[in-house]
Design goal:
Blueprint: H1 2-20, H2 46-67, H3 70-88, H4 95-111, H5 113-119, H6 125-139, E1 151-154, E2 162-164, H7 166-176, H8 180-203, H9 213-218, H10 238-243, H11 260-276, H12 279-288, H13 290-300, H14 313-330, E3 347-352, H15 358-365, H16 369-375, E4 391-396, H17 400-406, E5 418-423, H18 430-437, H19 441-447, E6 461-466, E7 476-482, H20 489-496, H21 500-506, E8 520-526
């Protein structure tokens, strides 16, 4: 059985590695692919570098999965997700590149769905978007547009009109049967954010029912990421997020913040309603964009959403999906659900005047780093940003003073990342620069907001983020391990009973997926262990 599993992994590995070469990059075998010679024409495209990086981490995750190294798998999958985010924001993708990216993403998300959901806080929007796609395929054509009797259930001033028809009833049944567990999970999670989001929506004059838009968009997951490269509970794509003031850089992605993104979503929806003066059309535009809705209206000569047949396929199902969700959420017991809301998020705020590693904070306060991430979902790294004078960190309610006092216990190290300024020389590529500093192409791309391969020029200064904090090592003995032939990070970690992630952190191996004989690695162990 084990041999069969290994064979299956090998087959997958071969497929992945073969895929690494399927791009438009052509390299001379006698030339270092990282350094270009003026006499040799080498076209290294940013997409090729990033997709190769993603596939390499994916392959590493498959190997680690076979060996049962869950820590290594977790690390590699997180790296793939980081690179996927960067690829999704490139502005120069061709159709061929987009198709390759979509195929890779579908394969990756299929293989590691459960782990992705865990990393995303037990619910990525991967599963939500998959369900939306399934709804579109299954129910789109069951009822002819414009020929289904629309029944108005509620239409009160200041509220979203609630309607039903045959399609909506079919979607309700879908959620009550095949997707019962998922819908129950989303319904329960709504309790975590209701008292946070609804007052914000009201402050912009929006109906309370708009709250459930986040249910069908993300399942109320701040960490949600969709096939359309939308992020956060309200699923903003990059352009719309920037338009409504949400910041994204190497350190933070405010699309994931449950307060900031709700303000942005409320502003956007308010603007859409002002433009269309109809909630169904405004919500359709939220899904597919204003231009698509305006084109459909001009083409068909009607402003009745329920009669527009030329809207994108998913948008035609978007409003029925929302109606079904609202109808169930307003009376869950009627449909066999038991509403058990998760406790509302409540917090204290701690003002930080420098960058702190979340794991360091966790060790001195007893608050798990994952909990800190849950309260501060905008953080893209396991540390607070160093490029601001102050950062307001949310911590569990009642823990504020405890955190302030214990921050002093963190060793007086440069806990924040160290920045290296690199001046690009003739012939250097992003791949070469990343290898030189032991980081990744995606890290450099994100830190410098590079969106196409033409943005790197000779003489340009690039910020290279190098994490200096190696882990909490105070009071531990230092062991020097000299790498032997045939050893891997997994085997060394198992020998010393530490995690691969710790080895990577202690030895600044970020982006370096391979070690070599004779290399010296530092390991920190408690005395007596």
């Amino acid at each position: 059985m084990k041999k069969m599993r290994f064979s299956a992994v090998l087959i997958l590995m071969v497929g992945v590695l073969l895929g690494l070469g399927k791009n438009d990059t052509h390299l001379n075998n006698n030339v270092d692919p990282g350094v270009m010679n003026e006499d040799v024409e080498i076209s290294v495209k940013l997409f090729d570098l990033l997709i190769t990086e993603a596939k390499t981490h994916y392959a590493d995750a498959l190997i680690a999965s076979y060996h049962g190294d869950t820590t290594e798998v977790n690390y590699c999958v997180e790296k793939v997700l980081e690179v996927i985010t960067e690829i999704g924001e490139l502005d120069t993708l061709t159709k061929i590149q987009k198709d390759e990216f979509d195929r890779f993403y579908e394969r990756f998300s299929y293989d590691f769905q459960d782990l992705i959901n865990y990393i995303n806080g037990d619910s990525g929007s991967i599963d939500v978007s998959q369900i939306r796609d399934e709804l579109t395929r299954e129910f789109l054509d069951t009822v002819d547009v414009g020929y289904d009797t629309l029944i108005i259930l509620e239409d009160e001033p200041g509220h979203l009109p609630i309607v039903t028809n045959r399609k909506i009833k079919k979607i309700i049944n879908f959620y009550c049967t095949r997707e019962r567990d998922n819908f129950q999970k989303w319904l329960n999670r709504s309790g975590r954010y209701r008292d946070i989001m609804v007052p914000i929506l009201r402050s912009y004059g929006l109906p309370d029912e708009i709250f459930y838009l986040a249910l069908i968009e993300s399942g109320f997951s701040p960490f949600a990421y969709s096939y359309a490269h939308a992020v956060g509970p309200w699923q903003f794509v990059t352009g719309t997020a920037a338009k409504y003031g949400l910041k994204r850089n190497w350190w933070v992605d405010e699309r994931r913040d449950f307060i900031k993104s709700t303000h942005a979503a409320a502003k956007y929806l308010r603007d859409l309603y002002k433009e269309f003066n109809d909630w169904f059309l405004a919500l359709a535009a939220y899904n597919c964009g204003e231009l698509n809705v305006l084109r459909a209206i001009r083409r068909e000569g009607t402003r009745d959403f329920w009669k527009l047949q030329t809207l994108p396929r998913q948008t035609r199902n978007y409003i029925p999906n929302l109606m079904a969700a609202i109808i169930i959420a307003k009376n869950p017991e009627k449909y066999g659900f038991e509403y058990k809301p998760l406790p509302r998020l409540q917090w204290d705020e701690v003002i930080l005047d420098k960058s702190y590693d979340l794991e360091a904070i966790a060790r001195v306060t007893g608050i798990p780093a994952k909990t800190l991430k849950e309260y501060n979902p905008e953080l893209r790294r396991w540390m607070t940003p160093p490029d601001v004078k102050e950062y307001v960190l949310r911590v569990p309610y009642g823990k504020g003073e405890h955190v302030r006092k214990n921050l002093k216990k963190i060793p007086h190290l440069k806990t924040g990342p160290r920045w290296i300024v690199h001046r690009v020389r003739r012939g250097q590529t992003l791949w070469y620069i990343a290898r030189k500093y032991g980081t990744t192409v995606s890290a450099i791309v994100s830190a410098n907001k590079i969106r196409n391969e033409n943005q790197i020029k000779v003489g340009q200064k690039l910020l290279i983020p190098v994490r200096e904090y190696r882990g909490f090592t105070s009071g531990k003995k230092k062991i020097v391990h000299v790498v032997k032939k045939g050893e891997s990070l997994y085997l060394i970690a198992r020998k010393y009973r530490v995690s691969v992630r710790q080895l990577i952190a202690w030895n600044n191996l970020y982006g370096r997926r391979y070690i070599y004989p004779g290399q010296r690695l530092y390991i920190y162990k408690s005395y007596g262990s």
